[in-house]
Structures are given as C-alpha cells and as structure tokens.
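Technical annex B. To support the medicinal chemistry partners, we prepared a structural model of the target in complex with pyridoxal-5'-phosphate, based solely on the information shown next.
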Amino acid sequence: MAHNATVAGTLEYLRSRDPKVGELIALEAGRQASTIELIASENHVSAAVMLAMGTCLTNKYAEGYPGARYYGGCVHHDALETLARERACAMFGARFANVQPHSGAQANQAAMMAMMEPGDTFASLVLKDGGHLSHGMKINFSGRFFRPVHYPLHYDKAHADYERIDYDAVRRVCLEARPKMLLCGYSAYPRVIDFAKFRSIADECGAVLMADVAHIAGLIVGGAHPSPFPHAHIVTTTTHKTLRGPRGGLILTNDEEIAKKIDKAVFPGAQGGPLMHVIASKAVAFGECLEPSFKEYASRVVRNAKALSGALMKRGYRCTTGGTDNHLMLVDLRARAEALTGADAEKWLERAGIICNKNGIPDDPRPPRVTSGVRLGTPAVTTRGLNESHMDTIAGWIDRVLSAGLKGENELAGECEAVRREVAALCAANPLPS
Ligand SMILES: *Cc1c(COP(=O)(O)O)cnc(C)c1O
C-alpha cells in the first residue's frame, strides 16, 4: 500500500528481513493511505524526503559543524549540512540557520539556553489556550529551569478580539515581569500573529523576541502567513508539520552573535551527534519548499481550512474566533450539542477513518483529557490533493458521525461503518503523492 514504487520496494525488502517490523510498518502505510488525516501538526512527506532518511548517512558521527567536526570522514556531511543551511536561509530570507535540532522542542531548548541563565524569566501564552509544552510547562525543561510568566487571550465574549491574543495584556505582563525572552507562535491558534507588535513590546521591555513558528512555517515559506523576519530575533520551527519534511527542528536568526550562541547551545549544549540522514532529508524537503508549486500548496492549505471551518459552522459547530486565517481551526463542539466532548469526538471519528485530536478551547471548563473541542488542520489532506469541495464532504461526515454518536452505540456503529467506506473511496481516488 506504499504510495511509491521505490518506497514499496524498500518495504518489501524490510518485510523479507524482519517480517514483524515490516508487517507493522506496512499496516501503518495502509492506515495512512486509507484515512483522512486532520491532525494539524501532521503531513505526508514525499518519497524523496522519506528515502533520504533511509540511507548510509545514519552510520556517521559528525559532531560539530561543517568545517569544524570532531570526527574524520565528514567531507560529504559538511557539504550536505551546508546545503541544508543554505536552503533553510533561502526559505526564510534569514542569514543564519542551525539544522541540527532533533525536534522542535530541542530547538526551543537550545534557543532558550542560548539566551537565558537558569532561573531567568520568559513570557509565553497561557499553555492551555494554544501554547506548546516547551513554552513553560511545569515538568518540561522550560518550566523546571526557567521561570515562565503567561499572557492571556481575550476571554470576554463581547470583545471584538474574543479568543485572539490580547496584545495589551502581553505588554502589561512583560512590563511587570521584565522577561529575558518573549515567545510567540503556538500549537493551536487559528489567527495571524502580529510579529511587528510583539517586537515593539519586546523592545519596550528589553526582551529577546522568539517566534516559534512550528505550525505555520510552511505557510510563511509559501507566502500564506506574514514572516517573523525581520521582527523576531530568533525563529524556531519543526520541519515535519507544514514544511512537509522529516521529523526535526530548525533555528534561524539574522544576528551573528545570537547565531554563535545558538550553535553552542545546540551542540554541545543540548545534543551530541547530529542525525545526518535526517539533515539530508531536511535539505530535500527545503528544496521542495523552494519550488514554485509550494506557494500554491500553502495557499490551498489556507483555502481548505477556511472552507472546512465554514462548512462546520454551517452545520451548527462553533469555530473559536469565528474561523481561521491559517491551516487549523478549534471546533467548539458544545455549540452543536452541549453533551459532545473532544474525547468522544476523537474516538468516534477515528472509527470512521477520520483522524484528529481532542483539544481544549480557550477557557475550557472541561479537563485536558476530556475537552470541549477538537483541533482540525488541512496540511495533510491538501498534500493528498483535496480541495474546497471535499472539505464540505468531510464536514458532512464529521457531523453524521458525531450526531450518530449522541444517539447511541448502535447508531454510531452503523454510521462509522458507512462513513469509513466513503472515506476509503475518497482516499483511493486521491492517493498520497509520490
Ligand atoms: C509541534 C510544536 C513544537 C515541538 O515539536 P516536537 O518536534 O514535537 O518537539 C514546538 N513548538 C510548537 C509551537 C509546536 O506546535
């Protein structure tokens, strides 16, 4: 069921060498091929991005940076990492890139270690309202070794910016706490981020502005969201979400002094040997992002998200902030039926072949394991070639499944079975690209 002959051949070989692992990967390939992926942080990479990871580059220790390694034999690794850095800089119009972070969280760890001492204060969004755990969760490094203070959204229903960032509050929090760093960029925020406004607040209180664009990086590169440059001092991101690359992290800056500190903080500060096979794959993905067709992809992701949120609102659901500017939406299920929870919705939809995650909505009275909402995103379905008319179909399926679930197990079982068949047919007609 793999979507490319070479990938399929690789998988066949793996099955012959290790039937147990090969079989499980084949099952997962089948699951991805036949279900609708609406998890906002996921995507489907190209065969080229996938294959670059499965190469001999994994054999090599290349601690250090191009031209300054701690091991011999790095000549091709130097060239590959240099290429990845150059493409990363070209994508964002930035001067310096570090492509070694193993993940988004590790990119954030390095960026914070570069600019702060243990115990220093930084400011970020209230975590349960869309922040990431690496932005100050108590048991995460960011909350254990630094002191987070949080800024809120507008929680007043009557306010024109209800559920959007309260920039006056950002300023108030920062002027009072005088953080070393001000973080913006989120995991579940459906609206444009005003980086210029954040920078003016950072300047006013003497903070370094860090934009964690893990979710929206692909939209930025594709011109579908304003760029954090030249406003942010540091930009961190993942490479596996809207950038459609391998799992990993990336840090960018225009400031040479900050770039030096970041390099030290990544290695040897936070990591040992870089994953050179992943860095090669990042280079392939960045090359794809620089192709003209990526612009069209990014704008289609946003058009599809607007279409999906519109189609859900038409059916009685509420999207927080009234819709979306980017690739994701937070759907408040209570507007459709007070009894609906995010946990039930996630479980029921998975039975129908529609994959998403429960998510708290701003000011959610329900606990994180239950929630009143689901987060839906369009990066993966857009990669699969789906368009705005398909979004109406998907919204219809979601409503059928959730309505049936409210009636009882019998109704739910029947509806999931029916929708699952329709989902599989749509997926078969729109295969994953090679
Ligand atoms: C996904 C995400 C990350 C972390 O990515 P991992 O690769 O899972 O560590 C960091 N910041 C934000 C805002 C994210 O959404």
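Notes passed to the chemistry partners:
The CA atoms of residues 308 and 391 lie 5 Å apart.
The two ends are 12 Å apart (CA to CA).
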